[in-house]
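Hi R.,

Quick one: here's the Pyruvate dehydrogenase E1 component subunit alpha sequence you asked about.
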Amino acid sequence: MIAKKYDASKDKQFQILDQNGKVVNEKLDPNLPKETLLKMYKTAVLGRNADIKALQYQRQGRMLTYAPNMGQEAAQIGMAAAMEPQDWNSPMYRELNAQLYRGVTLESVFLYWYGNERGSIRPDGVKILPTNIIIGSQSNIAAGLAMAAKIKKTNEVAVFTIGDGGTAHGEFYEGLNFAASFKAPMVAVIQNNQWAISTPVRKASNSESLAQKGVAFGIPFVQVDGNDMLAMYVATKEAMDRARKGDGPTLIEAYTYRMGPHTTSDDPSIYRTKEEENEWALKDPIARFKTYLLNKGYWTEEEDQKLVEDVLTEINDTFKKVESYGANVDLIEIFEHTFAEMTPQLKEQYEEHKKFLEGAK
Ligand SMILES: Cc1ncc(C[n+]2csc(CCOP(=O)(O)OP(=O)(O)O)c2C)c(N)n1
Ligand SMILES: [Mg+2]
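And here's the predicted structure, written out as tokens:
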């Protein structure tokens, strides 16, 4: 008999830390060193406050646009913390916390959203591709990186992130199918924040879970409480180890929530309820992780207050610096950075645009 339905409800969402910060899965607590846990927490606090400030800067007309990450800190940092320096991220655009954790500076993230392409330059050795707005493409790019790593035997794993809406795009399937068939070292992390702008996840897919799409690729999969920093770390670490051993890709669904707007041009009050937002506010990933640290004796309220003051100063100073650079991008650079050498068509477009701008003066 052909099974008509896969019953996702039988797969419990993987969780270690519940929404009150209580360890509910003692055996699986990775017992990470204090420094690692504090780095995770401090990154989340910096990320959350940077998001809040960036929204304000944009409203003040000081920043071009911005896509906030509020609510997705654990899903991003748990994943990043499980990666080694040689591993690649093929990212989307909602990636602030993973970027910060792996060594991208806040200055360069702000530069990018300010409208200065220099924000796409990564420090040496930070293997995160530039912010990628093209939904779905993250998968094929990661499959390419993973296949190259396999052929060159470099011990690198390529991790790609995609939104819930992104899983409705063809490239999501193409890249995963390719990597699964060739057992390329890849990990796929779906950031299921419940919404693709105003489209709810139930309209983007008829599957009971996004994780279960792994069945079709013939790869292991798991739905994780994406607001649980520890569960995200453990699931990603296991997937990274599998990939590195040559066992191929894993599909992780981080079940989380976008607490803020899609971007600064969106108003979520038009399409979702206050009740829904309030329900998810109780599942805040940072609050529960803080409780975990307080209970462990690794952190105090005094230290917390000081941290928030410090990050606000850091954010303000950083943004002032970014403003002092200005957009500072010559027109030519937009054309120059697409190919190593401009194609004839691109040259033509450049000339045309230059003339247009001169005429506009
Ligand atoms: C190929 C492509 N089609 C359409 C868009 C326009 N677009 C930007 S964000 C977005 C929604 C994405 O939702 P989701 O994948 O759930 O990610 P989230 O923004 O929620 O993190 C769309 C359709 C795009 N950037 N790329
Ligand atoms: Mg989404």
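The beta strands are 88-90, 158-163, 186-192, 195-196, 199-200, 221-225, 250-255.

Cheers,
M.
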